[in-house]
Amino acid sequence: MRTFLWKDHGRVYLYPDPESLASGATEHLVRILRTGLAQASRFHWVLAGGKTPAACYRQMTRETLDWQRLDLSLGDERCLSVDHPERNDTLIRNTLLQAEGPRLARFEPMRAEWGAEVASAHHAKVLETLGPIDLVMLGMGEDGHTASLFPGHASLSSQAPVVPEFSAPKPPPERISLGLTLLQKARQRVFLVSGESKRAILQALDRGQRLPVGQVGAGDWFIDQDAWFECP
């Protein structure tokens, strides 16, 4: 692993493969959680879906944390039926929340089965009870989207804390997502990016192209060698 600062984007932690990336990211997340819990009575962690986050969640089930003081929520969700295998909350329940310790945490899924508009309004009220976001975990799509904030979509200009999406370029088209302004207010951001298919977007970010993943604010980027490039 090597680490270095990346322009306005934050610090990069570069790993040779997805497996070592997941292990390094897990160690980093645990340090953040332990520090946060030592400084406050509760800690609000926003989770991401995806293969690499899932590997982190499986590793985190073995960690000793004061789980009952953790508030867990999601960065986005697909409007699919409850327990659908493509939902992010299904992934969370099948990985992190399979273990006894993590099940003590408060987990607030997005009620995406109600439809994007109704679920967005409901989740905004839920977030009011959780308070500010202490840590958000984010991925990055091959088009530069993060959570369910897509390039050129109207949701990017919304000031709402939670936004509905009706025309996502990947199925299902209907989703809900934390809004850009809320993600910008998160106290810490961790990005997980792996695979050669992400290299072109990282290069575009490096050149200054304006993309959703680059608009949420600086953070800690955990990237594998296949996704990375050498800056000029």
The main sheet comes to: 8 strands, mixed
- Overall pLDDT confidence: 96
Strand order of the largest sheet: 1-2-11-10-7-3-4-6
**Order of helical and strand elements:** EEHEHEEHEHEEEHEHHE
Number of helical regions: 7
Task: Report the span from N to C terminus.
Answer: 20 Å
Number of extended strands: 11
Computed CA radius of gyration, to the nearest angstrom: 17 Å
Coarse shape: globular
State the helicity in percent bands: 25-40%
Portion in beta strands: 15-25%
Structural class: alpha/beta
Query: Which consecutive residue ranges, at least 5 long each, have pLDDT under 50?
Result: none
Give a written overview of the molecule.
There is one protein chain. The chain is built from 7 helices and 11 strands. The strands form 2 sheets. An 8-stranded mixed beta sheet has the order 1-2-11-10-7-3-4-6, with helices on both faces. It has helices spanning 18-39, 51-60, 88-94, 116-130, 180-185, 199-206, 212-215; strands at 2-6, 10-15, 43-47, 70-74, 76-78, 106-108, 135-138, 162-165, 175-178, 189-193, 219-224. 31% of the residues lie in helices and 22% in strands. By secondary structure, it is α/β, with parallel strands linked by helices.
Features of this protein?
alpha/beta, 232 residues, 7 helices, three-stranded antiparallel sheet, 11 strands, eight-stranded mixed sheet
